[in-house]
Amino acid sequence: MSKQRMRAGMVAAVTAVATLSGVATAGATPAGPGVEGKTIWQKTVGDKDYIMRRITIPAGQGTGWHFHSGTLHGYVQQGTLSHFDSTCESDGVYKEGSSLTEPAGPQNVHIGRNLGTRPVVLDVLYVLPHGAPLSEDAPNPGCDFE
Fold first, then answer.
1. Most CB atoms within 10 A, among 47, 62, 76, 138?
2. Per residue in 44-89, pLDDT tens?
3. Integer Cα distance of 76 and 136 in angstroms
């Protein structure tokens, strides 16, 4: 596997998948306008789905509150991603060239936001139970910014 492909598999963010997965719950917060995700490749090995996606978050937009059934690994290709957990606190600011990991489960509700002036572009590797949605929407946990 190439170094570039391995690096691309390191970011998660999160990303815009809240609305891109097609899964909704009552009170869910949708991704902002212009948030896009594109599947680059996917493969199933045993009971796991490995899905590589490129997520683009325009300036001033966010992914909406969500969580994942599996672990995500992401890499920031461009921009700066601000990541917040369900306590409304920042749990990371990820600049271009940095990686992040999002843990699985509904106890890990989060949102990714682009507080900068240019688009955030993420390469995200989803490691999910076979057949699981990319993400599951969640209601805003009470934060005043989204």
1. 62
2. 999 999 999 999 999 999 999 999 999 999 999 999 999 999 999 9
3. 22
CA angle 99, 104, 106 (to 5 degrees): 130
The reply to whether 118 falls in a domain is yes
Instruction: Return the residue matching tokens 């490749």.
Output: 41
The model's pTM: 0.81
SS in 3 state form for 25-48? CCCECCCCCCCEEEEEEEEEECCE
Q: What is the pLDDT of residue 140?
A: 95
- Report in angstroms the alpha-carbon separations of 92 from 84, 101, 130: 7, 10, 29
The token pair at 101 is 């990991």
Residues in the chain, total:
146
Residue 117 maps to a domain: yes
66 beta partners: 110, 137
Domain at 124, CATH number: 2.60.120.10
Strands (E) in the chain, as ranges, are 36-45, 48-57, 66-67, 71-78, 80-85, 90-95, 99-102, 110-113, 120-129, 136-137
Kindly state the tokens that stand for 60: 């001033």
